[in-house]
Design brief:
Elements: E1 7-9, H1 43-50, H2 56-67, H3 69-75, H4 93-98, E2 102-107, H5 115-130, E3 138-142, H6 147-159, E4 162-167, H7 172-184, E5 188-192, E6 204-208, H8 210-227, E7 234-237, H9 245-263, E8 268-271, H10 279-292, E9 298-300, H11 304-316, H12 333-341, E10 347-349, H13 352-367, E11 379-383, E12 388-395, E13 398-400, H14 406-410, H15 417-420, H16 426-431
Parallel strand pairs: 1-11, 2-3, 2-4, 4-5, 5-6, 6-12, 7-8, 7-9
Antiparallel strand pairs: 10-13, 11-12
Helix pairs in contact: 1-2, 2-3, 5-13, 6-7, 8-9, 10-11
The structure holds beta-D-glucopyranose.
Length: about 425
């Protein structure tokens, strides 16, 4: 019996007892990086192993689907179904056509990460369209960093007949207000990427295992300190915006990895100043800390855009390559190029096309008045404000360095070799087999 990777954050998924053998014909499921990792599983197994706390109806539905191939395409979708070609979304066409109302997507900003413009918006569009929705069935807005704008966009969506809102909130307070208003009007909500602490009951959370993201950053820093031969590391820990629950989970992950090194005095923690997702603020914070503590020779930076701002400052001080570790996430072009230049150790690659498809799939089920299958919503995340275990669909992040860039982001065409390999990194691209 293969083991089943269940995802959870803060609170464990109830995995009591070994999973029973799947019944009936196994469905054809493509391999993906969304949770299952290297293990092929059928929905019935995931349902049994990951959600014994869920209603028996969900497990039954999944098992029945396995026995009745004619409906399998509708009910069998799971976290392992999605791939880079979006073809799994076509299996949801009947769910899509039985649903009603607009799906409103609320994205937070365009300045803290390239992901919202380059990936989330186009990938969600592609996912909805692959399931048969037309442009009048969904609307994707970006709040440009303003919680008030997001609130206005949410209200406009509801007025336009929204039945589902995907909320990637700027902060939990404003997200919870948007969700409470939506729920009071019968609109279903999804916490997209960021958990809204104190959000509505009945919501589903779609994201990555964000503690794992932080652990990858922490371990990447440790490995890099070793390979760049940083003697007596004096590390500044920089965090993301504390209003984003993800930033808290990332910090939980990397601080957990680094603490033993601080405890045994092999590393020195210089400080952990107030976090931010605004790159210019991160740069100011770093320059102030560096001026006050010129012995800083390594930094944990929580995403590529913050790292890029810090790296620009380091370069202005003529710090040589491969001497001063920084970290990141989002596998952005500048992030990957900074890795090849030797100014960033690595980046956490989150295949957003998988996250977008999982979110679009959950949205389609909610829009059709159905419960998303247990294989799709395969974990729980504890909302400590609402004191609730929020049903979750969580993907697996991957640490990318020079060594696996070709076999991950480039192979998946998340970023193309030609876009990465600008003149200044052309030699490094050749060395590491990129393009
Ligand atoms: C997202 C990251 C992003 C950061 C800043 C987080 O909530 O998960 O991918 O880099 O926000 O936008």
């Amino acid at each position: 019996m293969p083991s089943v990777a269940c995802a959870t954050q803060d609170v464990g998924v109830d995995q009591s007892g070994p999973p029973p053998k799947p019944q009936g014909e196994p469905m054809k499921i493509r391999r993906s990086r969304w949770i299952a990792g290297s293990t092929l599983v059928v929905v019935a197994v995931v349902a049994a192993a990951c959600s014994s706390s869920k209603s028996s109806t969900q497990s039954t539905t999944a098992t029945t689907a396995a026995n009745t191939p004619s409906t399998a395409s509708v009910t069998a979708i799971s976290v392992t179904s999605f791939g880079a070609d979006f073809s799994a979304m076509a299996g949801l066409k009947s769910v899509a056509s039985s649903g009603k109302g607009l799906i409103g997507v609320l994205l937070p900003d365009t300045t803290t990460s390239t992901r919202y413009v380059s990936y989330d918006a186009p990938d969600l569009t592609k996912a909805f369209q692959a399931a048969g929705l037309t442009s009048s069935d969904f609307k994707i807005d970006n709040a440009q960093g303003s919680a008030a704008t997001m609130q206005t966009q949410a209200e406009a969506d509801i007025t336009a007949g929204a039945s589902v809102l995907l909320v990637d909130a700027l902060d939990s307070g404003s997200g919870a207000a948007i969700e409470a208003n939506a729920t009071s009007k019968g609109v279903k909500v999804i916490d997209y990427d960021r958990l809204v602490k104190g959000g509505s009951s009945g919501r589903v959370y779609v994201s990555f295992d964000n503690v794992k993201v932080g652990q990858l950053i922490g371990q990447g820093e440790v490995d890099c300190i070793k390979s760049w031969n940083v003697k007596t590391p004096n590390i500044l820990i920089m965090d993301g915006d504390p209003t984003d629950n993800n930033a808290t989970l990332f910090a939980q992950g990397y601080n957990g990895v680094l603490q033993p090194y601080f405890d045994n005095h092999s590393y020195v923690k210089v400080g952990e100043p107030a976090g931010t997702w605004t790159p210019s603020v991160a740069q100011t914070t770093f320059s102030q800390q560096y001026t006050a503590h010129p012995n800083i020779n390594a930094v944990v930076t929580p995403n590529d855009d913050n790292a890029n701002a810090v790296i620009a400052y380091l370069q202005s001080k003529s710090i040589p390559a491969k001497t001063f570790p920084t970290t990141g996430q989002d596998a952005s072009l500048p992030g990957l190029q900074n890795i090849l230049k030797g100014y960033q150790c690595g980046t956490v690659y989150k295949p957003i096309y998988l996250e977008a498809q999982a979110a679009a799939a959950v949205a389609l089920y909610l829009r059709a008045g159905q419960t998303a299958p247990a294989g799709l919503v395969n974990g729980t995340t504890q909302d400590t404000t609402a004191n609730a275990a929020v049903p979750s669909s969580l993907g697996v992040p991957i640490w990318v360095t020079v060594d696996n860039m070709a076999s991950t982001v480039v192979k998946d065409q998340f970023q193309t070799a030609s876009a990465i390999c600008i003149t200044v990194v052309a030699t490094a691209c050749k060395t590491y087999g990129i393009g």
